[in-house]
Amino acid sequence: MTFFVSVCKRKPKISASRRLHLKTKLLKTAAVMLEKTKQERIQQKEVTLTEKVPPLQLSGLSVQDLQTLCKELHRKIDVADEERYDIDAKVAKNIKEIEDLNRKVFELKGKMKRPALKRVKISADAMLGALLGGKVRESVDFKANLKTVKKEEEKKEEVTDWRKNVEAMSGMEGRKKLFNANQ
């Protein structure tokens, strides 16, 4: 039993002008919310800075007091760096764990991505061994099946100095030699 579905355009449930109006309203409210979150972050940053770093009062302090204040500030900087390092390590560990979990989810779904294959230089024997399995242990000599072609040695003319040739062939004697050589 087959069903035929007629292809026809449905009318949208809301008009285009109404849809445009709703989109603009959504964008305006999103922009307002974004600005609000930015302001909240700035305020939170200021509050935490005032809590953790009180304003410095340097007037009327002796050299000894300034040195102790510097040492205390360096200690606080070291503590902050340690905390930052610990947090970075936790974040890196969490990111790695998330990647592993995502990979496991893909494996369970069966939608595994193929890794990019690399070119590998392999000998003909190893390739045949991989293709045919362990059946062929002896190496196949491809050169034995090739036809042998014998190269004929070309007759090489002796190359001599051209100036000697010109002097020997000049005049009537040279013409006699050429005439005699042709006969």
Largest sheet: none
Q: What overall form do the CA principal axes indicate? A: elongated
Number of separate helices: 5
Into which percentage range does the β-strand content fall? under 5%
Give the distance, in angstroms, between the N- and C-terminal Cα atoms.
Answer: 102 Å
Helix content: 55-70%
Mean pLDDT: 79
Rg, Å, rounded: 46 Å
Number of strands: 0
Unreliable runs, pLDDT <50, ≥5 residues? none
SSE pattern, N- to C-terminal: HHHHH
What structural class is derived from the secondary structure elements?
mainly alpha
Overview of the structural elements:
The structure is a single chain. The chain is an all-alpha fold and 183 residues long. Helices cover 62% and strands 0% of the residues. The chain contains five helices and no strands. It has helices spanning 16-52, 63-109, 124-132, 162-169, 171-182. The chain is elongated. The termini are far apart. The model has no long low-confidence stretch (mean pLDDT 79).
